[in-house]
Amino acid sequence: MSKIWIFDLDDTLHDASSKIFPYINQSMTAYVSQKLNISNDAAHELRDQYWKVYGATLKGLMKNHDVDPKEFLLKTHDVHELSKFVKQSHALKNTLKKLKGKKIVFTNAPLHYAIAIIKSLKIERYFSAVYSIESTKYNPKPSLYAFRKILRHLGEKPHQCTMVEDDLANLKTAHKIGMKTVLVSRQNKKTVFVNKRITKITHLNQQTR
């Protein structure tokens, strides 16, 4: 029986919260402000509203303002700048190298960004595929649609897969459809849909199988 490891990217394989997310957040607000000709404060409020209603800024912009998703993702994820914040880790490479089974990345980030970050981490050799927001027709995790679309493409059953994530909502969906789940978090959150918790990705090993 095959074994598939499905990894989230940001805040799972690398630290995005400290510098990358603030930069992207600022870029998204600036884009909305310029595109809709509104103030930064108004853009921030609109993004917050769209996040609550649609689960993502992009979904709201597409639905209500006919924004081109490719343009939005390209302009808000400047890989030349963002790649500067990535720190390589020998321990991460070693962890992935030792982990048996097929490994893929499944992220809500755009493909050009995901590939750039993975290359900056120098871990591209360990992954057989990268599934991005484009792969799910701009339907982000934790939507069931996104997970099912990736599984159909992989041609695998959920029970053959282990989802490694920092986001509880995404793990809840993964568990709901039958995947095993690993939470990467320093917070001790006990839930029925988390099979194992590790404080950082380099603690992942064969005991999670």
TrEMBL record:
- Which domain of life does this protein belong to? Bacteria
Annotated SUPFAM superfamilies = HAD-like
Query: Pfam families from the xrefs?
Result: HAD_2 (PF13419)
Which InterPro entries does the record associate with it?
HAD-like_sf, HAD-SF_hydro_IA, HAD_2, HAD_sf, Pyr-5-nucltdase
In terms of NCBIfam families, this protein maps to: HAD-SF-IA-v3, Pyr-5-nucltdase
Q: Know the name of this protein?
A: Pyrimidine 5'-nucleotidase
